[in-house]
Specification:
alpha/beta, two-stranded antiparallel sheet, 208 residues, five-stranded parallel β-sheet, 7 strands, globular
């Protein structure tokens, strides 16, 4: 491992591909050895923008994320120091004033659509996983999630998908699949690939 005995796993893929599901499987398998951090938590604060301006923001472009802060937090965690991860409020499109304390763990799982875009972030990862799921399935999952969990209207979800999500996926997500060590077809619950990933993590932790 390249991070002082800490294994960093990055899980990327398109919106609704099953990244969170895969991260949850890993967390369940390794218990208190694992900390899970979502790249979405590092959406930039937009306190200087109105709600209408925030609604119009492109949240699927790399510039929407404060990835440099995530890298700093990873450095702290790999040196045994806890960090306070931001909490993002999707209902108002802005970072809240709350944080979540994340303690150092033997395994850190990152999940997010644009994790592989940053070379600095890629270089910190011991294992890069891309969850590859059919586009039709992904948009259906996103519609269900955003309308039920994030207070969005159906029209707003469809508009956002067509104007920013799909174009940004084609520009900044799909091309970076080439950096993956493992590609998981069909979502985050593929049992064959899941067993392989678990075995890889177990082996690397044992060697550490």
């Amino acid at each position: 491992m390249k991070n002082d005995g800490v294994m960093i796993i990055g899980i990327a893929g398109g919106t609704g591909s099953g990244k969170t599901t895969l991260a949850e499987h890993i967390a369940e398998a390794f218990g208190d050895k694992v900390a899970v951090i979502a790249h979405d938590s590092y959406y930039r604060a937009q306190n200087d923008r109105t709600y209408e301006e925030r609604c119009a923001q492109n949240y699927d472009h790399p510039d929407a994320f404060e990835t440099e802060l995530l890298c700093l937090h990873l450095e702290e965690l790999t040196h045994g120091r806890a960090v306070d991860v931001p909490v993002y409020d999707y209902t108002v499109h802005n970072r809240s004033d709350k944080t979540v304390r994340v303690e150092p763990r033997a395994v850190i799982v990152l999940e997010g659509i644009l994790l592989f875009h940053s070379e600095r972030l890629r270089d910190m990862m011991d294992l890069k996983i891309f969850v590859d799921t059919d586009a039709d399935e992904r948009i259906l999952r996103r519609i269900i999630r955003d309308t039920k969990e994030r207070g969005r209207t159906l029209d707003s979800v469809i508009h956002q998908y067509l104007t920013t999500v799909k174009p940004m996926h084609d520009a900044f997500v799909e091309p970076y699949k080439r950096y993956a060590d493992v590609i998981v077809p069909g979502g985050g619950s593929n049992p064959v690939v899941l067993d392989m990933i678990m075995a890889r993590i177990t082996k690397q932790l044992a060697e550490a």
